[in-house]
Specification:
14-stranded parallel sheet; globular; 42% strand; single chain; mainly beta
Length: 730
């Protein structure tokens, strides 16, 4: 009898020890108590609301059939803000349905699959988590939003959008201590818009680093959406071996999936839709035994390292951090429609002198609908390619030698939403290829279509002339508003700081003249953009101070991806000191666009566009695109454009400069170029007239730049000075 009672007691207590509990916690202290006692199968629920400055350590030991779970009381209604982050440590842990917003991580990671180097998460999962604009205040300060350590972890159905500071959005961290063969799964995530960083370090996904790239990670990346991922040339930077990229959609994203380091990776069944977006690319191939098959690519306008398909030259006996030669690549059954470039032999130079070898390029379908378009380009020795079974429409490229058949292929829209041949051709991607739907990635309860405020998206606000009226209107303006100035004089006695988009527009009849008595009229801060239209700006009342400018972007402002447009306006009288600029961009800032359209600018002691503040070797620059259309520039001491990009890194897109139809009269001097371009990646100069002006100077510092020149007149002005042969503008 006593034995039976003892056995019953053991069974009772055993059952109590394994009972699953669900605990709602309302404070960090309650969470700490709950996580300390959590057992396999238990769930800890954070109460709905804002949890500010909450650094979560989620540690425990679950079981395969009974994980320990941390989740929100209601999906999407738990907001981690301020200085918050999440660390996982242990086994069989699940985190779900949290939102990181309105803050930044005080450490180098927002979500980390480890507590320390020797205490990591394995066999654990993060799902349904949102990280939205959770950026460090200094865009030059680096962090990784998600860092995956350990082995056999899963990151799925998450929503990551709006990373603007330095560092990778999601990184798999590998080394001998923390694990090399990771076997992670990264799937069904929405990697939303990431703006151009303007320097190296803007990848959306990276697996490994060059130091351990000769070993295999065996990570699976499948069924994700990469939308508007424009951070740098490498959207995905693969730096390990044995990884699989399958079923992903790259939508209107600048850059490419780059097999940068590591051997034996597989890229299959992915869909790349560029929409004609500049620099939108496909796959770049480096190293040994890479397979790229059954992918669909359409409307990719990228060239060079961001071509639809790019097969690189390598470095003989390459150091581990450079470019190992391509050997044994298989490129087969891919469909490429209206792509700008397929580049075989990319990057060939004195260092990268090893041609691709033992590479098969077979059964690919290449279709160009534009008349006369041939996207296939070859550089160097292509004898290491075996071309066979390829079809190109409408005609065959000579680059593919005997391995291509030219024929007219008519395309129709297929049931999968992709274009496909009207008749069976037997090559290219399988017609059954189905891109994962946008609604099937990320979370259902957080919008993928966040509203963005652009110039002229707000209301028209009438402003009358007078002292202080423009300043008052600018201070009261809502994001995107347009200040409609009546004819007359506007006196401004303060610098107008802009942290939202604003348009200042003069009348169609009469003149709206703006004078200012501070060192700058406008100052663009983070979030700001400016359009000046149909106004006259005079600097005659500005103080005699170093650093004067009509429009200034101060160093350290973190202003990035802003637009600055000056059109149909006059700017004059900037002579109170020797360095009075029209536009001056500070170190650490980066414009998406600086455009001058049909402006008349005269009597300027400094430069019109001074965008040369990045003097180090990190490859940063201050303006992605500078465009000058028409206009008159007269008596400009410092030149019209000073645009600089230094360093030797090749991970960025720009800068790009276009100057067309402009008149330069007494601009610069023999030792002050009228236009100074250093490190510019794409420059076009056409239909311009330069009279009694300084030289136009172009200096190649990095990459494979393009200089297009046509129909320019140099009157008593030195001819173009360039260390790069200029082409006739297309």
């Amino acid at each position: 009898m006593l034995a039976r009672l003892a056995a019953t007691a053991v069974l009772f207590w055993s059952g109590a020890a394994t009972a699953e509990t669900s605990t709602l916690v309302k404070t960090p202290a309650e969470y700490q108590r709950a996580v300390r006692v959590a057992q396999p199968g238990d769930t800890i629920r954070l109460a709905d609301g804002e949890w500010r400055d909450f650094q979560i350590l989620f540690e425990g030991e679950g079981r395969p059939d009974r994980p320990i779970t941390l989740t929100a009381q209601t999906p999407g209604r738990v907001i981690l803000s301020g200085q918050s982050n999440l660390r996982l440590s242990g086994r069989q842990l699940v985190v779900s349905n949290l939102v990181f917003r309105d803050g930044w991580s005080p450490t180098g990671e927002v979500v980390s699959f480890r507590r320390s180097r020797d205490r990591r998460a394995v066999e654990s999962r993060v799902t349904g988590v949102v990280i939205d604009g959770f950026n460090k205040p200094d865009r030059a300060a680096s962090d990784n939003w998600v860092a995956m350590y350990g082995q056999d972890n899963r990151f799925d159905h998450n929503h990551l959008v709006g990373k603007t500071n330095l560092g990778t959005t999601l990184v798999v961290v590998r080394d001998a201590t923390q694990g090399l063969e990771n076997r992670h799964r990264i799937d069904h995530n929405y990697f939303g818009p990431r703006p151009n960083l303007g320097s190296n370090g803007g990848e959306t996904l990276r697996i490994g680093t060059s130091a351990d790239s000769l070993s295999a990670s065996r990570t699976l990346v499948e069924n994700n959406w990469f939308e508007g991922c424009d951070g740098e040339v490498e959207i995905v930077s693969n730096k390990s071996g044995g990884n699989i990229y399958r079923g992903n959609v790259f939508f209107h994203s600048r850059g490419a999936l780059v097999l940068r380091h590591g051997d034996g990776n597989l890229v299959e069944n992915n869909v790349f839709i560029g929409g004609g977006k500049p620099h939108a690319g496909g796959v770049r191939i480096i190293n040994r035994d890479q397979t790229v098959r059954n992918n669909y690519m359409q409307g990719l306008a990228g060239e060079g390292f961001a071509a639809a398909l790019s097969v690189m030259y390598g470095v003989p006996d390459s150091p581990i951090n450079r470019y190992h030669p391509v050997v044994g690549a298989v490129i087969e059954n891919n469909t490429l429609i209206d792509v700008r470039s397929i580049l075989l032999g990319a990057g060939m130079d004195e260092e990268r002198s090893a041609a691709p070898r033992q590479t098969r390029f077979a059964d690919n379908l290449i279709v160009a609908t534009a008349e006369g378009a041939d996207p296939v380009r070859g550089r160097g020795d292509l004898s290491g390619f075996a071309f066979s079974g390829n079809i190109q429409s409408p005609t065959a490229s000579a680059t593919l030698a005997d391995g291509v058949t030219g024929r007219q292929v008519r395309l129709v829209s297929g049931p999968n939403g992709l274009m496909m041949p009207e008749e069976t051709v037997g090559v290219g991607a399988d017609v059954s290829l189905r891109p994962i739907a946008r609604t099937e990635v990320g979370v259902s309860w957080y919008s993928k279509d966040a509203a963005t405020v652009r110039l002229d998206s707000g209301n028209a606000v009438p402003v009358l002339p007078g002292e202080g009226t423009l300043a008052a209107a600018a201070e009261a303006a809502r994001p995107g508003d347009r200040l409609a100035l009546a004819a007359g004089r506007y006196e401004v006695d303060r610098t107008l700081s802009l942290d939202t988009p604003l348009t200042v527009q003069g009348p169609t009849d009469g003149v709206a003249e703006i004078t200012f008595s501070r060192p700058a009229l406008f100052q663009i801060e983070a979030g700001g953009s400016l359009r000046l239209s149909r106004v006259t700006v005079s600097g005659r009342n500005a103080p005699d101070e170093v650093g004067n400018a009509v429009i200034r972007v101060r160093p350290g402002s973190n202003a990035a991806n802003y637009e600055l447009i000056l059109e149909d306006s006059r700017i004059e009288g900037l002579t109170v000191n020797r360095g009075f600029d029209v536009v001056s961009t500070g170190k650490g800032s980066m414009a998406a666009l600086i455009a001058l359209r049909r402006v008349t600018i005269s009597d300027v002691s400094g430069a019109v566009v001074a965008a040369a503040a990045e003097t180090d070797d990190k490859g940063a620059y201050n303006a992605e695109r500078v465009e000058i259309e028409g206009g008159v520039f007269r008596q400009v001491g410092g030149g019209v454009v000073d645009l600089y990009r230094g360093g030797t890194d090749e991970s960025t897109f720009g800068p790009t400069l276009t100057v067309s139809g402009a008149l330069f009269d007494h601009v610069g001097s023999p030792d002050r170029p009228a236009v100074l371009m250093r490190g510019v990646q794409h420059a076009e100069l056409r239909d311009n007239r330069l009279i009694d002006s300084g030289p136009v100077r172009f200096t190649h510092t990095v990459g494979d730049p393009v200089l297009l020149v046509s129909n320019n007149q140099f009157v008593r002005t030195p001819d173009l000075q360039s260390d790069l042969a200029a082409e006739t503008a297309r």
